[in-house]
Amino acid sequence: MAISGNTELNRRAFLAGSTAALAAGRGLPGQERASQERKPGYRIVYNDDSIAPILMSESLEHFLALAVDRFLGTQVDALFWNVISSDVLHYPSEVAEMVGAHLDGFESSDYFQWYQRLMKIIEERPDYLQAMAERARVRGLEFFASLRMNDCHESPVWKAMDTYSRYRREHPEFLLGDAVHPGFSTGFDFAHAPVRERRYRIIEELATRYRLDGIELDFLRHPAYFKPDEAYGNRHFITGLVRRVRALLDRHQEETGRRVRLAVRVATPMDISKRMGLDVETWIREGLPDLVIAATPRGFELSLPLEQYVEAVRDRSIPLLAQLGWHQPVKEARGAALNFWNQGADGIYLFNWYSRSDRRHEPLREIGDPGLLRRRDKVYPVHSQEGELWADTHPPAQLPLRLPRGSQGDGMEVRLRIGDDVAADAAEGRLGSARLRMRFEEIHSEDRVEVALNGVALAPDTGRLRIDDTHMYVWKYWIEYELPVPPLRAGVNRFRIRLAHRNPRLMGPATLVEMKVELEYQNRDDRKEPSSVQG
Q1: 442-481: buried (b, 16+ CB within 10 Å) or exposed (e) per residue?
Q2: Three-state secondary structure call for residue 444
Q3: Which of 123, 382, 461, 514 has the largest count of CB atoms under 10 Å?
Q4: 3-state class of 109 per DSSP?
Q5: Cα-atom radius of gyration of the chain, to the nearest Å?
């Protein structure tokens, strides 16, 4: 297929095809979508932190191939390129410090090598961001500069001291300090007007110096903007900043005729964003962003609640993207993406995916088309709680789950969303197997675990204990069940798990630490060449 620079035409053709497929019955009846109609948007947006393509490059041309050309033959429609580390920029700036300019020497040899490669690119072309934008358009991609609004990688947790800007060192009164977790302590307190002005000037420089398709305000890397007890009351400060940015971009369009879209990456559910001081509901109501990404700071979750955002963007021309992060195996990526599409997402956003190999490119050829995901092998996992650092900015996790002896009556509930229409697939003989896998810690072979699915008890003789002894000192205990259809169904499934019998010499609880449902199909659709790709 010939490469087309008309990305809007390509996107419209894709969206029309997807809508037609759904109307013809080839879509998935998860039936949680607000509408079968899809808004003009992006199949996949790929956010790159800018480290690997620069570090691996040998010249400007080699860099452009690594950073942009790799998306040929995928469903990626836009590249979001990070332009900042902590408070130092990755390009020559007139309004803020550029990386390395504030240093007499580097503490990290890896970071120094990355800096040397960046400077080599800049020597060839100081406006290399413009070169990226131009190359992206030739390849049928849109190019956004992504600005991490309060990156704190120089904090005591990450210790990337080479990114500690002179401005932050000289203005400790503008930092969050002891009021927040040490991982966010070097971040700015946006209650201070100079802090907000500094960010605005960077955004203004990006919008007016370069011919960009858009700018992303990444509010989740890292997710602290105010002292915690002041965050909600100070939400008007960041709303005012977002309004200024919207006005800037509108004015820029009037003066130049070029539209620069505004994307925001924010926490889901929306209540978490509110607690952070991000009044996203007001932003959407006022039409400030052109694109909303519902996400988490860390990005490991493969199941996120989208209901509040789906409702907020209903009847508005603001596409909603749902985030997948940290490169997931293809079966897990399929399941997560299908669930997002079924909930009402208009596209998939990849964060810290690090797709440097063909194997990691495989999901990029599939997950942007919900019709293409049908009847492909999938894994649907239940996510586990993130560490203390992220406790207040991620949705509560269901795992780990402690099961005391007897597990209090009916047991403990775990909910798991399935995107596939398993009833129809089983009726047509296409679903080969559905398997529940649960990994426990502090479990014994004489213990008995009982599981019910949507009110139906699973037969005890279908449960099998498997021991993974590949670790020298720690064995992993898995209990597996073959799942009948029904009771397994599309949408939310409710599992009741009970430790019915416990070896009497074991006093503590058993703990469920991993849980997943694996679907395998009889047909080999996942061997077919995916369609709806670029290039």
Answers
A1: ebeeebebbbbbeeeebeeeebeeeeeeeeeeeeebebbb
A2: coil
A3: 382
A4: helix
A5: 24
- Give residue 176's region: left, alpha or beta (phi > 0; psi -120 to 50): alpha
Report which of 383, 392, 360, 378 is spatially closest to residue 48, judged by C-alpha positions: 360
Please tell me the predicted confidence (pLDDT) of residue 445: 84
CA 509 to chain centre: 33
Structure tokens at 132: 């990226």
Asked if 338 and 420 count as a contact pair (C-beta separation under 8 A), the reply is yes
Calpha distance 348→350 (Å, rounded): 7
Q: Sign of the C-alpha dihedral, residues 122, 125, 127, 131?
A: negative
In the chain, what percentage of residues exceed pLDDT 70? 87
Residue 20, pLDDT score:
36
- Among candidate residues 430, 429, 431, 409, the one with its CA nearest the CA of residue 488: 431
Sign of CA dihedral 210, 215, 217, 218: negative
Three-state SS for 125? coil
Q: What are phi and psi of 9, to 5 degrees?
A: -65, -45
pTM: 0.89
Q: Return d(Cα 155, Cα 478) in angstroms, integer.
A: 39
Residue whose C-alpha is closest to residue 265's, from 196, 320, 201, 192: 320
State pLDDT tens for residues 467-516.
Answer: 776 666 667 889 999 999 999 999 999 999 999 888 889 988 899 999 99
What does the angle CA 286 – CA 287 – CA 292 come to, to the nearest 5 degrees?
A: 120
C-alpha–C-alpha distance, residues 495 and 17, integer Å? 36
Whether the Cβ atoms of residue 404 and residue 499 lie closer than 8 Å to each other: yes
* Beta bridge pairs of residue 451: 497
DSSP state, residue 138: H
Greatest Cα pair distance, the chain, in angstroms, is 78
- Please write the tens of the pLDDT for every residue from 143-195: 999 999 999 999 999 999 999 999 999 999 999 999 999 999 999 999 999 99
Helix ranges (DSSP H) in 229-269 = 235-256
User: Is residue 492 helix, strand or coil?
Assistant: strand
Q: Whole-angstrom Cα distance, residue 144 to residue 207?
A: 10
Dig out the tokens for 102 from the structure: 């504030």
Give just the sign of the alpha carbon dihedral 262, 314, 265, 3.
Answer: negative
- Residue 126: cis peptide before it, omega within 30 degrees of 0: no
Separation of alpha carbons 506 and 447, rounded Å? 10
SS3 content of the chain, % helix, strand, coil (to 5): 35, 25, 40
Report angle CA 488, 490, 493 to the nearest 5 degrees: 55
Backbone angles phi, psi at 302, to 5 degrees: -110, 5
Please tell me the predicted confidence (pLDDT) of residue 408: 53
If DSSP codes are grouped into helix, strand and coil, which group holds residue 503?
A: coil
